[in-house]
Design goal:
Helix content is about 40%, strand content about 20%. With about 260 residues, the chain is an alpha/beta fold. The radius of gyration is 21 Å and the shape is elongated. One of its GO terms (cellular component) is tRNA methyltransferase complex. This is tRNA (guanine-N(7)-)-methyltransferase.
Amino acid sequence: MRLRGRKGIREELEALPRLVVLDAEKHKGKWKEFFGNDKPIHVELGMGKGKFISQHSVRNPDVNYIGVDMYDELIRRASEKALLAREELGLEGYPPNLALLRANIENISDMFAPGELERIYLNFSDPWPKSKHARRRLSHPRFLEQYAVILNEYGEIHQKTDSRLLFEFSLNSYAETEMQMRAISLDLHRDEVRDDLVLTEYESKFIQQGLPIHRCEVVVGASALAAYRDEKNARRSREAAKEREDLEKAKLHGSQA
């Protein structure tokens, strides 16, 4: 859907060089220089109006965030959300750890260097429901292969969607590219709204409508995978120890009966 921006919007965006980036390629491999620090970088691909990425930036000052979208009007609205997120906390100005990038995700390999990112968010991406358009889905293997390059050793992909079709397609894509999935949920807010997670505008609306939200995390980087395997093995060890303990208690109880 093409958004109609108001007159002079490009000039407004050009006046925010510390927040809005209109030329992605010149920052490839230099995003830490843009932010002026070595903090990990998390990117939301298709940020919409920017609520999610703005809230994350104020909640997590030790992480740098980049919201990506291709429309001037959405970048403008996101800049307003970024300012509002700070004002709600009694802070002035825009978040110093946030950049709003106007770019086409098709060119993501021209935007980020290998290992430059730590996390990618795919929130309510266009499901492109027609089979002939499957290659445009942001969880298509052709995109996942690029994500795997630009993510670092701790790299992860976090996805949320209301589309069952897209979610099933995504799970198959992750499996096809041999990526490790965890925390898979077919109805994220079934019991109660997860207040530990930042909600997007779409997500809040879908929750009110009673629609299920699908979510999963994908572990990509080598160090992240090693930590995941260690955690899984430790959990299995705890479960086995608990089973042995319960069995011993049952035997003791039986002998005393």
